[in-house]
Amino acid sequence: MSTHRSTPQASHRPSPSCRPSRVGSPVSSPPRLSRPDVIARLRAAGCVFAEDEAELLLATARTPAALAAMVDRRIGGLPLEHVLGWAEFAGLRVAVAPGVFVPRRRTEFLVDQAVALGRRAARPAPGRTVVVDLCCGSGAVGAALGAALERVELYAADIEPAAVRCARRNVAAVGGAVYEGDLFAPLPAALRGRIDILVANVPYVPSEEVGLLPAEAREHEPLVALDGGADGLDVLRRVTAEAPRWLAPGGRLLVETGERQAERAVEAMAGDGLLPRVAVSDELCATVIIGTRPGPDPSDRP
Ligand SMILES: C[S@@+](CC[C@H](N)C(=O)[O-])C[C@H]1O[C@@H](n2cnc3c(N)ncnc32)[C@H](O)[C@@H]1O
């Protein structure tokens, strides 16, 4: 993971003609696809943002052969982020491997809410704010929190081995640790009762609606990252049930849901003893439910 604030420039690529080639051996690399070629192939395959995607592919491919292969994979339906090997998220360039959930732009709202609360919860030096990214996928949310907050103790966990491998790259870059397993089970027991900010972007698509998702999600992201059970809230309910034992007094749980699920998610949190509130971003079409473990407000810390 590296910080990334603008589209990479194609001119930063090493010139293919500078690559060493063995004396006397025939050079058989294919001719490099031109920008108009790439745009035309993407457009013919139905890519809505063919120009933008072409820029990213041209800027990322190191050789003509790599560019041709990337264009083929994209035309074959692989999500752009899986083709590139990274996604832009909250101002960061986050590594995303094939088979790992691609972080969505709307989840930046979850990050914004968590950053605001994390700043309020800051412990006086040399104390550190304890942050956990549960169901971390690529680790995009945890990495963004680690980059935005000062003096954090950062942990992340996911059940999918491919996601954990990816998260280890992204979260380690900001000094965090990543664990593999079911929800809270793999976390160090010493975190019980100490977590200030617990973010969990759990799968929340109702099972019956998974088939309605775009093919890029259905075919290239694991079902475990999407399917939230009958009403989409199975995993969320398991998280809210356990969260009070892991949160510090005054600590917060933040989860993303669909707008239609917000009321039931609020009920689940309240039923498990958390004080819920709903935050909505019309701009990002995002809904976040924030549950507070009753206790002293962390912003009152001396
Ligand atoms: C919607 S994706 C979110 C990924 C990431 N937080 C993000 O926003 O990009 C949900 C993630 O939850 C993980 N997951 C699903 N069930 C889980 C469980 N029981 N324990 C841990 N992780 C789980 C999936 O592997 C997937 O990576």
The percent of residues in helical segments reads: 25-40%
Low-confidence stretches: 1-26
Largest sheet: 7 strands, mixed
Name the helix and strand elements from N-terminus to C-terminus, one letter apiece.
Answer: EHHHHEEHEHEHEEHHEHEE
Number of strands: 10
Mean pLDDT, rounded to whole units? 90
Task: Name the ligand types.
Answer: S-adenosylmethionine
At the first level of CATH, the class of the domain at 107-300 is: Alpha Beta
Shape verdict: globular
Organism: Streptomyces gilvosporeus
EC number: 2.1.1.297
Pfam families: MTS
InterPro entries: HemK-like (IPR004556), MeTrfrase_put (IPR022446), N5-glutamine_MTase (IPR050320), SAM-dependent_MTases_sf (IPR029063), Small_mtfrase_dom (IPR007848)
Structure overview:
Mean pLDDT is 90; it is low at 1-26. The protein has 302 residues and is α/β, with parallel strands linked by helices. The protein has a domain at 107-300: Rossmann fold (3-Layer(aba) Sandwich), CATH 3.40.50. A 7-stranded mixed sheet has the order 6-5-4-7-8-10-9, with helices on both faces. The two termini are 35 Å apart. It has 10 helices and 10 strands. It has helices spanning 35-44, 50-60, 64-75, 80-84, 107-120, 140-148, 161-172, 215-220, 234-246, 262-271, and strands spanning 2-3, 86-89, 92-95, 129-134, 152-158, 177-180, 195-200, 247-257, 275-281, 286-292. Helix content is 34%, strand content 19%. S-adenosylmethionine (SAM) binds at residues 101, 103, 107, 135-138, 140-141, 158-160, 163, 182-183, 201-203, 224-225, 235.
Secondary structure layout:
Elements: E1 2-3, H1 35-44, H2 50-60, H3 64-75, H4 80-84, E2 86-89, E3 92-95, H5 107-120, E4 129-134, H6 140-148, E5 152-158, H7 161-172, E6 177-180, E7 195-200, H8 215-220, H9 234-246, E8 247-257, H10 262-271, E9 275-281, E10 286-292
Parallel strand pairs: 4-5, 4-7, 5-6, 7-8
Antiparallel strand pairs: 1-3, 2-3, 8-10, 9-10
Biased composition (Low complexity): 13-32
Keywords: Methyltransferase, S-adenosyl-L-methionine, Transferase
GO biological process, one term: methylation
